[in-house]
Amino acid sequence: MTAEPHLVADIGGTNARFALADARGRISEMRSYRSKEFASLEGAADAYFSSMNVRPRKACFAAAGPVTDPVIEFTNSPWVLDVAAMRARFGFAEFLVVNDFKALAAGVSELAPSDFAEVKAGTAESSAPMLVIGPGTGFGQALIAPT
Which helix (H) or strand (E) element contains residue 131? Predict the structure, then answer.
């Protein structure tokens, strides 16, 4: 029996990207929508689901902005993400929302050495802290501090 895919999404100020992820983390059915074309995040999610024949019961969204409350306000978008309302509307049994750069930082350990760009010559230390930074609609960052 094949496990049901999970819905994964990267929700920023400019784009909302949705995809399905299998148990091994392989991505399929990726779609990108311009945020300004939808009045709400729910509208963009509706557009994604209308193109699919599957309705995942588990979802994880990476949101551009602080994820500290059950209602998340995006940094550079008028959208809000009400976790309970999204869970109920789309029937998610499990729904996790994390900061977008926290999600990027969590994935760094999965990258190959060829995925990195050297900014300054030196010797890499596997126990040293790392920083993930990136421009988009805003400027995100996350610190990876080994324990």
Answer: strand 130-135
The count of domains in the chain is 1
Tokens 């994880």 identify what position? 60
Phi/psi of residue 115, each to 5°?
A: -80, -10
Q: What is the DSSP string of 74-137?
A: PTTSS-EEEHHHHHHHHT-SEEEEEEHHHHHHHHGGG--GGG---SS-S---TTS-EEEEEESS
pLDDT tens-place string over residues 90-129: 999 999 999 988 888 888 888 888 888 888 888 878 788 8
Q: Please state, in angstroms and rounded to a whole number, the distance separating the CA atoms of residues 30 and 34.
A: 14
CATH number at residue 64: 3.30.420.40
What is the pTM for the complete model shown?
0.85
Residue 1 has pLDDT above 50, yes or no: no
| Residue-range definition of the domain harbouring residue 146 | 1-147
CA dihedral sign, ordered 55, 78, 33, 131: negative
Strand 6-11 versus strand 58-63 pairing type: parallel
